[in-house]
Amino acid sequence: MLSRWQVHSPLTHEVVAATLISEHSQVSLWDAMVVQSAASLGCEVLWTEDLDDGQRIAGVEIRNPFATAAGHQ
Hints:
alpha+beta
């Protein structure tokens, strides 16, 4: 099953874009790189507990799998 997952190897311009996301959205560079990779791969939703549920960064909706039904942790 994992063999069907697409692996993303970011290019230089995507790393630069991640630095801009980090600065603009006030998230760590590593979180910004994950968001940028998701955006580059065409993901509409990124499931993570590390960012704010419901936030939209670089066109990607952030969802927390542990958030309550009300949308808050």
